[in-house]
């Protein structure tokens, strides 16, 4: 493949696009470090002068923040566990087992990703209310998994199809059952894809707001995204504390992506080139 002409132009374009995406993040961090009386000045400042930690002190002293962060961690880890527990066997079955209707099932999974969460909120609320799962971790984890499971199967299916069938056949000949083949032979070979799915499922579970608002009425199990909404009051918005809390909430997301970046990129790339 020939190198692109004028590489500096493509670099400049990529830099501009990246800067456009990072501008809201910078503005969030900047606002959290700005004195509350200077946040909504007529002439916005690009640099917070003078720097202040007042907004972070207000955010850290906010009642319920620690509980909300713990709730989000429990929900996100539960979403990852349930997504992998259901998604890996289903993706393996669609990738290896020849059965009637498998193509229709894949199409159904694609279609399941199209409706926005607001469309699913009311039916899920009715079902979980009848099952007694509202205001519980289990209910929120199950609701968030409806968003992550179709994505997980679609990503993992081509990755699992990329494993040589001869390895599985050899394990079956040696007396290993189908579950053992999946756990001992296949999964060690597709670690990047599994980690990518787990990382993105964690991010989806951590950032979900609508289900946390509709399926949990009290702060006992509500995630931190619902807590952010409490900074928006009837008589105004506490922008400094809101942006400081949003920055704190974003730190786990950044850490997860930084730690698993190589696996996430490698897993998504593998899933995109293997059909």
UniProtKB/TrEMBL annotation:
Which membrane topology describes this protein? Answer: Multi-pass membrane protein
Which branch of life, at top level?
Answer: Bacteria
Keywords, A to Z, come to:
Cell membrane, Membrane, Transmembrane, Transmembrane helix, Transport
Keyword Phosphoprotein listed? The answer is no
InterPro entries xrefs: BP-dep_ABC_trans_perm (IPR050901), MetI-like (IPR000515), MetI-like_sf (IPR035906)
Q: Which residues form the ABC transmembrane type-1 domain?
A: 69-260
Q: Where are the transmembrane segments?
A: 7-29, 73-94, 106-126, 138-160, 181-206, 239-260
According to its UniProt entry, one GO biological process term is: transmembrane transport
| Gene Ontology CC terms | plasma membrane
PANTHER family, alphabetically? Answer: INNER MEMBRANE ABC TRANSPORTER PERMEASE PROTEIN YCJP, MALTOSE TRANSPORT SYSTEM PERMEASE-RELATED
Family membership = Belongs to the binding-protein-dependent transport system permease family.
Q: What is this protein called?
A: Sugar ABC transporter permease
């Amino acid at each position: 493949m020939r190198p692109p002409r004028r590489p500096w132009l493509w670099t400049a374009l990529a830099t501009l696009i990246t800067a456009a995406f990072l501008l809201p993040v910078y503005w969030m961090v900047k606002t959290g470090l700005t004195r509350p009386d200077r946040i909504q000045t007529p002439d916005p400042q690009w640099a917070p002068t003078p720097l202040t930690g007042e907004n972070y002190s207000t955010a850290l002293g906010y009642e319920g923040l620690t509980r909300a962060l713990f709730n989000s961690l429990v929900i996100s880890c539960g979403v990852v566990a349930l997504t992998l527990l259901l998604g890996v066997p289903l993706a393996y079955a669609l990738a290896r087992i020849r059965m009637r209707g498998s193509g229709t099932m894949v199409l159904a999974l694609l279609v399941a990703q199209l409706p926005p969460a607001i469309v699913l909120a009311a039916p899920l609320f009715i079902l979980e209310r009848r099952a007694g799962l509202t205001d519980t971790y289990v209910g929120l984890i199950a609701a968030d998994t409806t968003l992550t499971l179709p994505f997980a199967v679609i990503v993992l299916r081509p990755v699992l199809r990329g494993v040589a069938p001869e390895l599985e056949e050899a394990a079956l000949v040696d007396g290993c059952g189908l579950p053992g083949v999946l756990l001992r032979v296949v999964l060690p070979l597709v670690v990047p894809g599994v980690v990518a799915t787990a990382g993105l499922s964690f991010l989806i579970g951590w950032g979900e707001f609508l289900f946390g608002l509709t399926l949990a009425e009290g702060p006992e199990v509500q995630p931190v995204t619902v807590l952010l909404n409490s900074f928006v009051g009837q008589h105004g918005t506490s922008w400094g504390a809101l942006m400081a809390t949003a920055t704190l909430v974003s730190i786990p997301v950044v850490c997860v992506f930084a730690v698993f970046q190589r696996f996430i990129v490698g897993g998504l790339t593998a899933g995109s080139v293997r059909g």
